[in-house]
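Dear support,

Our group has been running a series of protein-ligand predictions, and this particular one with flavin mononucleotide is the one our PI (initials K.S.) wants archived with full inputs and outputs. We had some confusion internally about which version of the output was final, so please treat the block below as the authoritative record. The input we submitted was:
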Amino acid sequence: MIDIRTQYAGLTLRNPIIVGSSGLTNNPERNKEYEKAGAGAIVLKSLFEEQIEIQSDSLMQESDYPEAVDYIHGYAKANQVNSYLELIKNTKAVCNIPIIASINCYRTDAWVDFARQIELAGADALELNVFFLNTDLSHEYDPTFALYVNIIRKVKETISIPVIMKIGKACSNVPALVHTLKINGADGVVLFNRFYQPDIDINTMQIVSGNVFSSHSDLSDTLRWTAIVSGKIPDISIASSTGVHDWEDVVKCLLAGASAVQMCSSIYTHGAEIISQVLTCIEEWMHQTCYESLSQFHGKLNYARIKNPSIYERSQFMKYFSNRD
Ligand SMILES: Cc1cc2nc3c(=O)[nH]c(=O)nc-3n(C[C@H](O)[C@H](O)[C@H](O)COP(=O)(O)O)c2cc1C
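Confirmed final output from the archive:
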């Protein structure tokens, strides 16, 4: 009997496939479909700090009364938060798998109250999707760390469900950041969020959206950092995300040390059925390779367990090209 259960950030998942936070997970009935297709957990669409500010700002522009501003701001915020809490409650009412709420934040203080409400609404864990791109020439050190640490500390003081940090690749030292998050209470990390990809239309001279969906080639970086972080910080749960498109990608991430994976672009492209197809293929592969549980191969090829770990490091990329004719 093949056992594909996994432990992720203190949660027991029936399998490692998590539906990633996106418009896909915005609706309780559709979330039920992912559960039926076999998903191990679901991360709900993020509640965005900017979204709340934009909605309240546009309402405020319509107001001629300055004294109404605070009221409108509070109302818009409460409205957004309430519909998000309804999404959590309604999804929990129809699904049995863990439901992970998600908030997108870029400031330290604005989210602590929401975190408490999210826990009370029944979310099984909270994913903090922190967006901060450091482009300031005057910063001599990377202020990302301090921002993340402040957020994780405040949220951990407030709630007792597992807290997972979803980070982007644009960070000067991924393992050091994950280590810092771990010692400040993070139960898991998602490596990585894939942010909006800007492109330039040279005919219209406009900034336009690049590919919304990831491609297979995005997996390399995800694998590299999953393997390095898993090898250096063995006691943190990792969900690999970005470029996980098929069952082989899932197996690769597990071998690199992920406890789970998040899939988003491939579910947009192929629908919920891809989840059951991936699970069937993983079980077949485990059967053929005589593995009975994920723990037998989890992290087998991470940075700490292979003979030549530097293969995961950037210098190998240079060697590869310098050896080519
Ligand atoms: C249309 C779309 C909407 C997304 N919305 C969110 C979101 O609200 N919160 C979030 O944390 N990530 C969001 N993401 C990022 C995904 O959760 C995921 O991290 C990213 O797409 C990489 O995974 P993939 O390669 O499987 O697509 C979104 C992605 C897409 C394509």
